[in-house]
Amino acid sequence: MKKFSILVSRMNLLLFILWIILIALIPGFLATWLGVGGCFLRIPMLMYLLGLDIKEAYFVNQAVIAITTIPGVIEHYRKKHVFTRGALVAGLSAAVGVAIGAYVVAKYLPSDILKVIFGSACIIIGIIVARQTLRLKNKLKRRIVVTEVKHLECGYRLVLMMFLAGFATGICGFGGGIYYLPIYFMFDYPTHIAIGTSSAQMIITASVGASILAYYGFINIFIFICIGTLTLVASWAGAKLSARTMPWILRIAYSLLIIFAGGYVVYDSLKMLLYS
Predict the structure, then answer these.
(1) Residue 187: pLDDT band by 50, 70, 90 thresholds?
(2) Who contacts 97 (Cβ-Cβ below 8 Å, separation ≥6)?
(3) What's the pTM?
(4) pLDDT of 2 strictly over 60
(5) DSSP E strands: which ranges in 180-253?
(6) Which own/partner contact pairs does 52-55 have at CB distance under 8 Å and 24+ positions apart?
(7) Rounded to the nearest 5 degrees, what angle is found at the Cα of 129, between the Cα atoms of 30 and 194?
(8) Any idea what the Cα angle at residue 174 is, between residues 69 and 170, rounded to 5°?
(9) CA separation for the pair 177, 33 (Å, rounded)
(10) Pick from 72, 260, 266, 86: which is nearest to 172 by CA?
C-alpha cells in the first residue's frame, strides 16, 4: 500500500484510473489479436504513465501476460490456431533461456541500458517482419488452421531458436511474442497458427520471467492486480477478432506498432544517457 500511496500522490486519482484502464485494455487486446503479449506497448506505458522503474515494469508485464493470456489461448484453441506439441516444445526451450536472461537483468544490467536494448529489439524485428510480409502479401489472405497442415516444425531447430529467443526475452522483459512470432514465421507456420501457438507458449515463459524478477525484489502486486483484471477481458476480445482478420493485416499491424513503441523508448533513453 505504501507504493500505491506514493504512486497516486504523484497524480490525480482519476488520471491514475484512466492510465490503468488504457494500459490494461490496449496492450491486452493487441496481445491476443497479434499473438505478441502486448509488451511493446505495456512496458513503455508502465514506465511513462505510471512512473515504474523498467525492471518493475518487466515484472508487471510478464506477470500480466502469464495470467491474462489464458482466455485468449482458450479462444485460439477453439478456433484450431494452437499447435499443442509445438507450443510445449517451444515453451519449455524458451523458458530455460528466459530464466537465464531474467537472472542477468535482475543482477547485472542497469535500467538505462535495458531501455536501449528493449527499443532497438522492437525496431529491428518490426522492420524484418514488415519486409517479409510485403513480399508475401498475396499469399497471406486466408486463415489456415492446424487440421489443414500436414507438418509443422517442432524438432531441434525450434528448440535452439526458442532457447535463444527466450534468453533475449529475459533480457528485454518481454512476454516473448515479438521474438517467438518471427521464428514461427521463419519455420513456415501459417499466420493464425503462429499467433495461437505463440500466445500459448507465452503462458510458460512469462511465468518463469515474472517469478525470477519477483524473487529478486522487482515486484508490484497492486499494479499487477489492477491491470491484470481488466486485461482478461481485452485478451478474450483480441483472440475473437484475430480469427476474422486477414493474415497480412495482422503482420503489418504488429510491425508498425513495435517499430513506433521501440523508436520512442530508444529516443527517450538516449536522450537521458546523453544529457544526464
Answers:
(1) very high
(2) 162, 163, 164, 165, 166, 167, 168, 169, 170
(3) 0.75
(4) no
(5) none
(6) 52/220, 52/223, 53/111, 53/218, 54/111, 54/114, 54/115, 54/118, 54/173, 55/105, 55/106, 55/111, 55/114, 55/173, 55/213, 55/218
(7) 60
(8) 120
(9) 12
(10) 266
